[in-house]
Write a structure and sequence with these properties.
The chain has nine helices and 53 strands. With 822 residues, it is mainly β. Strand 14 and strand 15 (341-347) form a beta hairpin. It is globular and about 75 Å long.
Amino acid sequence: MASTLPAAGPAAAAADPQRLTVDLGASEGRVMLGANGSLYGLSDDGVPGDAVMEPLKITSISQKPEGGAQHPNGDALTVSRSFFRAGGGEINVMMQDIYAKWPYEDLGIDDYLPKVDKIVKETSADPNGDRFVYIPFNEPDQIWYKLDVQDQAQYEKNRDRFFKDWKTVYQRIRAIDPHARIAGPNEAAYHSRLLKDFLAFTKRENVLPQVMTWHELGSGSLRDFQAHYDDYRRLEREAGVAPLKINIDEYANRRDLSVPGQLVQWVSMFERNKVYANMAYWDAAGNLSGHVVRSNIPNGGWWLFRWYAGLTGNTVKVTAPQPNTVDTLQGLASLDTSRRQAQVLLGGADGDSDVVVKHVPRSVFGRTVTATVAEAAWSGYEGQHAAPRVLVRTKVKVADDGSVTVPLRGLHKMSAYRIVLIPGGSGTPSAASVPWSASYEAEDAAITDGKVYTQGTVSNANGYAASGTKDVGSLNQPASKVAFTVNVPKDGTYDLGILYGNQSGGPATQKLIVDGADPVTVTYPSTENWTYRAKKDVSVGLQAGTHQLVLSKGDAEVTLDRIDLTTRTGAAGASYEATLADISGRPSYDYSSSAGVGTGALVLRTGDKAVFDVYAPRDGYYTVTPRTSAAVKLTLHGESVTAAPGRPLRLYLVAGNNRVAMASGHCAVRSLDVSGDGSASGTLSYEGASATLAGGAKLVESPHASAGSYIGWLGNSPSSTAEFTVAAPRSGRYMLVVHYAHNDRRDNGHAYNTDIMSRTADIEVGSATPRKVTFKNTWSWDDYWTVGVPVDLAKGANKVTFGNAAAWAPNIDRIELGRVVG
């Protein structure tokens, strides 16, 4: 009889739970983290920011060659600076993206070869030249060569032309860079016929790729990939080719990206087979294929990949209820005997599941385990997601047969879940605090002058994801509104999360009317399009019982997907478990007590470091408390401070993810606790109107700017500058937060992707060397985002100057400065 934990989530449903089985005794090899890559996941040096890339331990990305005309940014050498700085692995160079058109203009191999020469010479000359992989052809089954034709005679003619060109280009690359790694054939879909011929030809002619690549881009890949993989390995064996590294360098559809419950299905099958894989590029570059909001803010999908990056040791066998089946419960798991941790990631189905963990080794875990269950929910492509909420912390005995069953109840198919098992120890973990929450679909509400649309289904996999696959759009008439009937359990303040799309090209509004009271204006920032979901958070005061919440048309048009109501329980906060933090050095793990967060303690000694990924909903000050046995040194934004055990610190965090490093001579660390809403008390704030402008930079009136104007026409000349004089109350490290907007775009002649551009500004503080900072496109000229830059200020007056001698800088609304240690 398996030992069973208390159920996580709402009460059990009537149907029998599905069973997902994890066998800790069946190792599948080292955790590889291959499936976290992205095509055009980076657009510029600094987009996305280092703080959201470092935690993901990204193994490969795919980008265009430097100066390629296919897209306005995403150049491999340019983005390599931040990618390698953030600990990235290798970069696939999509060589045909040197061309401007899609599909690529076919000007013949003689036109292509000089381009190949230039790409390889520039790339191989880079200091990190050995970390690039050349992909000479992209989707040749469809582009240039038509290798997917059914007629065998025509196929052979096309195939022979492709093989001739492959050999020519391969040898051209190797003539310039004898050690170059080359990948291919890079089909748009799996073709056994072609790959059999390709392996035979490339082996015979000594032009075998070092990396085998193809794409898995349909919903059916969740069903078919395993058969594709098995077939390919069979073809290798029959051809006498040693197993090649595989990179599925484009995977997943729009409906999968950003959705934790969909992504875990893809990641589990790639990691199980130990292949690398990069998510597709359907929309805009620079957001890790839809998983980074703005430049530094996690969404639900980001947290799934953060969990994935936290797997250590070996992966173990997971048996799903319906293996290789589209849109079903799937999972992956790891066992690290040195850390004495097992982790399970799962998702993809509504309802109830029992996770049965078999062969829990007594030598590693003892007679009891502590289990922690957390949820990463879907928050949209551009919807912020706080640190995943812990649903359950509990201890249980390991059964005589060595198994433990974790019951999960009321799963959401768009969510992913993480189970962590560690030795039980003494004491009792703190009970998880899960506030009351309820969700209401817009399509189920009372709709006036609007229309229900279906999005992102299996049959329309490249439609955007929507909660319940439906949303309510066309809310563009004067009387358009959606009325939700909600019921709350007690009097209080509730957080109202609105999943929306804003297609208006600028900030848009709706009127929120609660039970017929005076309307309150809700302002929605722009999104890429009306189906590219974001999340707006507001608060409402409600008494226990039934209420009507109406969202009616305001200025411009907004699409509604779903609303979430959650009881507010005080200042937002989270406990970040030390034994799940990133580490360096050789810290040890102490599970003698399961008190507190329930995951034991990380023991740091001289030379050890733990890094915590701390979420902040907005720029400002937060209370940060180390739960430690001795003093520790915390490092944030380049500033270090000594913290006594349990003593709260007031630290400045930027919106999104913040990497907080901890070190100590000898200390047991349970958690880093963070609370607060981002206080602006004690910060310095300067509106654009206070700056001294020169060289054509000027103030421009705008109702969307914080004080009614912004600094525009900045840059594009050495003389065009904006100089702020800031008064620092004391010297030290500050975060300079720039509120900016811009909507630079470049149409490359095809509408396949959204070709947004970034802008840069050179920021000079005092007499220090100017620092170039990248500012991502904000979707419109009237939406203001923030970028945080660490700077050092002297006590008293400091000059902070913005400029860009070579191109236009972003429009600047205002700046804020907060000392890192407040």
